[in-house]
């Protein structure tokens, strides 16, 4: 890529896409192409092909996807597999058809078997059963990897795939019910702190996701308690015993740009893992988040809820061999993410920003 290259970021408003956009802009890339989902429905093949024919991007970052936590994955199974299959298929095929020089496909560590050896190497793909709670999403991501590989083999394209570990950072979804574990924890502890401090008015300004009829202070407190958030404690799904690896999203963006600038498909193989190479128990994550937020209440666990995969740690020796390593220490990343969340929602000042504050209570 050069600074004048036409670069399309699919999913530029999401967690990963917005980080890639920030990273490219900080490096001086100015010819960036982006469309919102309202402007371009990536599930419609004819619309995607018309866009590629008109815009002729030279490089593509495929970060668009339907994403969510355990609850969302397990509830909207058909949507997760259908939408993600269509998005990947349409963009990859259009990239081939309209002569894209290089495409980078973003996947997920959920592609690996539930009981894969730890840490998970790239060649562990398709060696065992998947985690049932996110199987539809994983199957779609595996299909995208294979699409890139087989287009390369049949048509000589230059399509690469990266499999990041669990991501967090600015631009994440902070909804209490359908977000990933880290942003959900940050928001739960933040709201619990507001409850403990008696700042109900600041919470009540953000009622969009409450059922109709929830308006009084008593209703708000009751609804939050049903979600596991009280002034005295925050209740978390599962036992807290599983291990997870977390990567700050700006580090992932740096890896994406690094590989797009320096490497091609044959050099990285079918795909490459991207992570920190270190994991941490969910209960320890909760402790760190509680400290960063400043909540002094208790942490409770609900072992009747599913834990998901017991451990997910990526082997990152391959990308390290390519000259890249993550830079952001976990606690620092959590602090940066929380600062971003507070700035965007502006709950502490009592002037929430409905555009930037993702995921109503």
What order do the helices and strands come in, and which of them pair?
Blueprint: E1 7-10, H1 15-26, E2 32-33, H2 45-55, E3 59-62, H3 70-75, H4 77-97, E4 102-106, H5 135-155, E5 159-164, E6 166-168, H6 181-196, H7 200-204, H8 217-226, E7 233-237, E8 243-244, E9 246-248, H9 249-262, H10 265-268, E10 272-274, E11 280-281, H11 282-293, E12 298-302, E13 311-312, H12 317-321, H13 330-345
Parallel strand pairs: 1-2, 1-3, 3-4, 4-5, 5-10, 6-9, 7-12, 8-13
Antiparallel strand pairs: 8-11
Helix pairs in contact: 1-9, 2-4, 4-5, 6-11, 11-13
* Mean pLDDT reading: 90
Helix vs. strand class: alpha/beta
Task: Report the principal-axis shape.
Answer: globular
Order of helices and strands: EHEHEHHEHEEHHHEEEHHEEHEEHH
Number of helices: 13
Please state how the strands of the largest beta sheet are arranged side by side: 2-1-3-4-5-10
Computed over alpha carbons, the radius of gyration is 21 Å
Q: What does the main sheet amount to? A: 6 strands, parallel
Estimated helix fraction: 40-55%
Which percent range describes the beta-strand content? 5-15%
Terminal residue distance: 41 Å
Contiguous low-pLDDT stretches (5 residues minimum) are 207-211, 347-361
Q: How many strands?
A: 13
